[in-house]
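re: the backbone from monday

yeah here it is again, tokenized this time
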């Protein structure tokens, strides 16, 4: 095998990467491709000539016909680390491949999948390409018998291996000969009931291989239409092999399901990475609107010089040149002294940063061309160049939704779109919403509704536009009526009047009505109780809704006042009706008399007997009623009796010791007694007042003599009488 370590100049391949917010791959961006096109137009890079391209030869596949499981892809605006290339999957793979080489690396039985084989002649002594393996098996069948796998089997002069045609598999765990498969590169934990011993049988160091496994691409896989939603995969890995210049070699790129035909797997092969050059150059941008543009004072590019890992034992110097409108040191930074980079032993990658500081006017960027030539170990010279562009300000335009809707809607979708500028874009609407599309309300009168947004690209360039939603609704509910129900009854009605119909309108009512179904096709609904009723009209275009509260007559209030409420028999009482809201009145006077009227007139009743009477009034309106109560007290009238004594002897002999008029049936008494000088010696308002002959002011017994008394007495008829007289006080008798 030939090794080469002299100074060389490298081939240039330009790839500008974008970091944006969208997360999906673009599949078949240029339409379907055949396996021949996949190899010749996408995979093969400098230093390789390919021929005799075959697809699934074991089952008679046709390499000149587009195949559903061999697709071109590019990363689009996603963060997928391989920007473009060819994807081979087991999905839709034809037939039972039963490939002996795949069977060997899986220790199983290869079923459906894809195999691409071709011969090639290298112009260098090294083969190198990059790939990512992914699968649906990871979340369910890690460390199981479903060990989906793939292999890159190369054969030719100087190669001796265990596979067909003495081939070796170069799709291996880095630094080993272990094939990359579900059971060798995974998350380090069995899933779906798998056994750790199964993975250990495939690679005793399988848990150390987690550094080559990731789930970070899963959102991209899930978001990509037409791609299996792979739930795990490898990081970017490199397949390399030493070659002999100008000899013919054969390679087989193969992937298949193992044992079953479900839960597909895939391998992503990087475009132009199938190369035998000594050094590869990638120019990557941290952010860009296209794959060839950098923005002054916003984005930076990085030139990556990479050589195969199996060629890192020697020192290697690479020279490159620049040209174009952009001036080094003025429009961008100085790249490297002497326009060269040096690989030291152990180094496989060197990077140079491109920092644009100027660019042409909008739409007219400055160009920067990097060129190099490579003399291969086989003596061939390969010249290549690539161009990137430096922009000061991009063309940046936006267009918003303009739409007409025929019906009011609380949620209308509007959106804005951007062309030019540098993604990802952010959108901010005047109502505070962000992103696109957004939902906005359009409810109200006919006419245009304006929603303004500002779109900003990642470099801070802004454009503004207005999304216009024109509401042109003709159908409307003009008036709602309600006819109140009697209190507590279903005697009310509701009505709705609409206009602007297109076609025959359909009326719908909903509410608590029980005498009709809850949906009737009529503008009037009758015989209803009180409550909320919901009305809609639908025509051939849209529907409108309204509601109305059906009232009811207010419930009655019973109230009355007896006049008088207390008196002596016979007592004639007038009952003053203070009620409201009634249509019928029933009186019970509690003396055997009952009166029923339809008007709130006052009533009278005569009470001839003593007693307490509970009078009631029931007032009714519809099915509602109220009752009031009042009490009438009737007393029996008894005659008033009293004495007017003229002498008493307060000597405590038990006979005639006090002065009293001894009233009977009196309800009030006011008495005063004066001595002959007109001084008050006794007074009382007690109806049973008695004088014991002592001066009420001093407590001393009064002297014998004549005293004047006067009193006012009231009988049960509430009639008062005033009387006076003289009484003789004799203490010695």
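seq for it, each position gets an aa:
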């Amino acid at each position: 095998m030939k090794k080469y370590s002299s100074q060389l100049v490298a081939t240039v391949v330009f790839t500008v990467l974008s970091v944006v917010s969208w997360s999906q791959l673009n599949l078949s961006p240029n339409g379907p491709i055949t396996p021949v096109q996949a190899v010749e137009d996408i995979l093969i890079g400098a230093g390789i000539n390919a021929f005799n391209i075959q697809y699934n030869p074991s089952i008679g596949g046709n390499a000149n016909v587009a195949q559903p499981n061999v697709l071109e892809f590019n990363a689009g605006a996603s963060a997928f680390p391989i920007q473009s290339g060819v994807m081979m999957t087991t999905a839709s793979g034809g037939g039972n491949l039963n490939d002996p080489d795949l069977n060997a690396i899986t220790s199983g039985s290869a079923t459906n999948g894809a195999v691409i084989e071709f011969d090639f002649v290298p112009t260098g002594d090294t083969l190198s390409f990059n790939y990512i393996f992914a699968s649906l098996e990871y979340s369910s069948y890690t460390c199981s018998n479903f060990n989906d796998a793939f292999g890159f089997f190369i054969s030719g002069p100087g190669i001796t291996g265990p596979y067909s045609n003495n081939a070796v598999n170069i799709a291996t765990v880095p630094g080993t000969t272990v094939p990359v498969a579900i059971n060798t590169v995974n998350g380090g934990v069995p899933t779906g009931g798998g056994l750790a011993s199964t993975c250990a049988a495939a690679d005793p160091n399988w848990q150390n291989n987690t550094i080559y496994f990731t789930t970070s691409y899963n959102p991209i896989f899930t978001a990509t239409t037409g791609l299996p939603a792979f739930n795990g995969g490898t990081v970017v890995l490199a397949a390399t092999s030493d070659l002999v210049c100008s000899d013919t070699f054969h390679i087989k790129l193969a992937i298949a399901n193992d044992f079953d035909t479900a839960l597909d797997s895939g391998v992503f092969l990087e475009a132009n990475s199938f190369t035998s050059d000594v050094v590869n150059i990638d120019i990557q941008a941290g952010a860009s609107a296209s794959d060839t543009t950098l923005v002054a004072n916003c984005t930076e590019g990085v030139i990556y010089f990479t050589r195969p890992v199996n060629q890192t034992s020697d020192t290697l110097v690479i020279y490159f040149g620049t040209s174009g409108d952009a001036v080094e040191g003025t429009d961008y930074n100085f790249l490297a002294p002497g326009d060269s980079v040096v690989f030291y032993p152990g180094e496989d990658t060197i990077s140079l940063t491109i920092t644009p500081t100027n660019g042409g006017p909008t739409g007219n960027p400055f160009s920067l061309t990097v060129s190099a030539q490579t003399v291969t170990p086989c003596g061939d010279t390969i010249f290549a160049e690539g161009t990137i562009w430096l922009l000061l300000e991009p063309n940046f335009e936006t267009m918003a939704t303009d739409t007409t809707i025929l019906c009011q809607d609380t949620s209308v979708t509007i959106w804005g779109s951007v062309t030019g500028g540098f993604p990802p874009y952010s959108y901010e609407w005047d109502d505070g919403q962000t992103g696109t599309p957004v939902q906005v309300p359009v409810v109200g009168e006919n006419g245009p509704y304006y929603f303004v947004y500002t779109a900003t690209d990642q470099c801070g360039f802004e454009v503004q536009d207005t999304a216009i939603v024109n509401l042109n609704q003709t159908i409307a509910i003009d008036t709602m009526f309600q006819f109140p129900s009697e209190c507590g009854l279903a005697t009310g009605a509701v009505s709705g009047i609409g206009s602007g119909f297109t076609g025959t309108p359909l009326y719908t009512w909903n509410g608590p009505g029980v005498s009709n179904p809850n949906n009737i096709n009529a503008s009037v609904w009758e015989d209803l109780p009180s409550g909320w009723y919901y009305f809609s009209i639908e025509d051939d275009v849209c529907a409108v809704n309204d509601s109305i509260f059906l009232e009811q007559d207010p419930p009655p209030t019973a109230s009355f006042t007896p006049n008088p409420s207390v008196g002596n028999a016979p007592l004639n009482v007038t009952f003053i009706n203070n009620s409201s809201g009634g249509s019928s009145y029933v009186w019970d006077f509690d003396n055997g008399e009952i009166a029923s009227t339809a008007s709130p007139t006052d009533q009278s009743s005569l009470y001839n007997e003593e007693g307490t009477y509970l009078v009631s009034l029931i007032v009714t309106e519809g099915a509602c009623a109220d009752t009031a109560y009042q009490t009438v007290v009737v007393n029996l009238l008894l005659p008033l009796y009293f004495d007017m004594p003229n002498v008493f002897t307060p000597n405590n002999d038990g006979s005639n010791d006090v002065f009293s008029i001894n009233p009977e049936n009196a309800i009030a008494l006011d008495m005063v007694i004066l001595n002959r000088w007109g001084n008050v010696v006794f007074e009382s308002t007690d109806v049973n007042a008695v004088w014991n002959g002592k001066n009420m002011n001093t407590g001393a017994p009064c002297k014998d003599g004549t005293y004047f008394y006067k009193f006012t007495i009231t009988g049960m008829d509430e009639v008062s009488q005033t009387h006076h007289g003289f009484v003789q006080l004799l203490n010695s008798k």
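The two ends are 169 Å apart (CA to CA). Helices lie at 35-43, 100-106, 138-141, 196-202, 218-223.
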